[in-house]
Amino acid sequence: MSFTVEVEHRIKVVQGLASPVRARRGLPLVPAGEGVPVLVTVGIAFADDQLDERGRFVDTDAVEEELASACTELEERPWVEQFPSRPTFEVVARHLFGRLARRVPQVAFVQLRDEKFGTNTRYEREG
Q1: Is residue 35 a contact partner of residue 121, using CB atoms and an 8 Å limit?
Q2: CA-to-CA distance for 44 and 38, rounded, in angstroms?
Q3: What is the pTM of this model?
Q4: Are 10 and 38 in contact (CB under 8 A)?
Q5: Least enclosed by CB within 10 Å: which of 67, 74, 93, 118?
Q6: How many CB atoms lie within 10 A of CB 114?
Q7: Which residues contact 56 (CB under 8 A, 6 or more apart)?
Q8: Are 44 and 58 in contact (CB under 8 A)?
Q9: Would you write out the chain's pLDDT as a tens digit for each of its 127 residues?
């Protein structure tokens, strides 16, 4: 058996990309300064035998602190100014995964939920 603990953090970001799909459909574009509400979720996976004497593996407060720190940078300025390539949700999820995996044990996934449009993008550990 195994566990997955999920920790969430809400942010508001400016991606800074035009949406060709929305433009083709005649839908309004997201105003550049408005920002998009995003729910960021990190999952930590572990096995029964990894529980400590108190019956836990991960300190969720510490994970929330790491997640909040990583997300602060994403909120500070438009993503197009922060990433050298096109900052899609896929690119940002992979970036967050890499950053958190160095600081949080056994990160299984990072998910970004665009709460304005109801889409989820998940980057998962392989294997």
Answers
A1: no
A2: 20
A3: 0.87
A4: yes
A5: 118
A6: 17
A7: none
A8: yes
A9: 699 999 999 999 988 776 776 678 877 666 555 788 999 999 999 999 999 999 999 999 999 999 999 999 999 988 989 999 889 999 999 999 999 999 999 999 999 999 988 999 999 988 6
> Tokens 């790491």 correspond to what residue?
66
CA 99 to centroid of chain Cα atoms: 11
**41 Ramachandran zone, left/alpha/beta (phi>0; psi -120 to 50):** beta
Query: Tokens 């990894």 label which residue?
Result: 50
CA distance 94 to 82: 14
Which DSSP symbol is given to 91?
H
Which candidate, 14, 64, 60, places its Cα nearest to that of 38? 14
- Rounded-to-integer distance, Cα 125 and Cα 15, Å: 24
